[in-house]
Amino acid sequence: MKRAYNFSPGPAMLPGPVIERLREEAGDWHGTGMAAMEMGHRSAEFSSIAEKAETDLRDLLSIPDSYKVLFMQGGATAQFAAVPMNLCAPDETADYLVTGYWSRMAVKEGARFCHANIVLDTADNGDTSIPEADRWHLSDQAAFFHYVDNETIGGLRLPTVPVTEAPLVVDMSSSILTEPIKVEDYGVIYAGAQKNIGPAGLTIVIVSDELLDRKGNDKKGAIPSVLDYRRMANAGSMLNTPPTFSWYAAGLVFEWLKAQGGVEKMAARNRAKADRLYRAIDDSDFYANPVATKYRSMVNIPFMLADENLDALFLEQAAERGLTSLKGHRSVGGMRASIYNSMPDEGVDALVEFMGEFECTNG
Ligand code: PMP
To answer: pLDDT, tens digit, for every residue of 313-352?
Structure first.
């Protein structure tokens, strides 16, 4: 099977062995004569798939029993609304740290459901660094503090967990499972699946029981049932038909991660891959990444060519070598290499080698 080194930010590359399992089990899951995606979501077979996926995810991230894991839909974008709907009333204030495109989207949507206070916006420095917490304008009684720990587009990440009175809500869409976290630090962790978890269509929400019991603006009956954390938790994420195929495929990814040695092993590998690519960028006068070293993402690495007129040629020649989806986001330009858990070391090696050759020829 011919597989590209696919640097897409999401939907992103899945591990080769997971693609193989999907092929093997496509028409007949474990001798049932049914594909996983053909099974009723309340069948014994699918229940076993669903439960195993949750157990493996709990193992991988050491999720305490005092947290619920929800398998939801609507992407991280639905969570931009669901978070304030569940956690605060419309006249209450929530704090938002804004460090790039996705936290800007979160605050824009969130402001429709609560008073959104921007504690800091890194637009002032072109999203290249994050001023320390003593410069943040926190509210006195915020219902929660929202941030995006890894900005997928700008390639900027917050290197430490913020310390705030308000419960932390974090969008980990592009960083979940790429390094160990302490779940207890957070009130809510959410992530769209299509980068490190599995196919699009599934959103993982990890929410503390304490916050689950908090009344949001549902006292006005305003939360759609499928976005209501309590109702979803009570229904085991099966209030309605869940995205069964994505849930099943996510389970295969979790099994693969466990076989790789878990999240700590992935983190070491991811760190090494990122270091190699940043070194190639920093050691050259032809490529550049504007983000201050301390705040650089480990998994989304944007880089500019010295002459943007060469962008199209770079992309064309990279694709000829099976290095695909390197085009940067339209708001940033240039290139971006997304190197999540599934990107093998060899993929990064091949990219670094190609970058060196392209610079020799065109630099
Ligand atoms: N947050 C982050 C950090 C993202 O990277 C993305 C998607 N790339 C989103 C939110 C939006 O996710 P979705 O398309 O699943 O709504």
So the answer is: 999 999 999 999 999 999 899 999 999 999 999 999 999 9
Dihedral class, residue 281 (left if φ above 0, else alpha if ψ from -120 to 50, else beta): alpha
Q: What does the alpha-carbon distance between residue 51 and residue 332 come to, in Å, rounded to a whole number?
A: 40
- Give the span between the Cα atoms of 149 and 132, in whole angstroms: 14
Phi, psi angles (nearest 5°) of residue 248:
-60, -45
Cβ neighbors of 106 (< 8 A, separation 6 or more) are 80, 96, 146, 148, 171
3-state DSSP call for residue 218?
Answer: helix
3-state helix, strand, coil in the chain (%, to 5): 40, 15, 40
Q: Report the distance separating Cα 88 and Cα 142, nearest Å.
A: 9
CB 242 within 8 A of CB 36: no
Contacts of 346 (CB under 8 A, 6+ apart): 5
Express each pLDDT in 144-178 by its tens digit. Answer: 999 999 999 999 999 999 999 999 999 999 999 99
Which residues surround ligand 1 with Cβ inside 6 Å? Answer: 9-10, 75-77, 102, 148, 152, 171, 173-174, 192
Q: How far apart are CA 323 and CA 273, in angstroms?
A: 15
For this structure, is 195 an active site residue?
yes
Measure the N-to-C terminal CA separation of the chain; round to a whole number of Å. 35
What Rg value do the Cα atoms of the chain yield, rounded? Answer: 21
Question: Of these residues, 56, 95, 127, 171, which one is catalytic?
Answer: 171
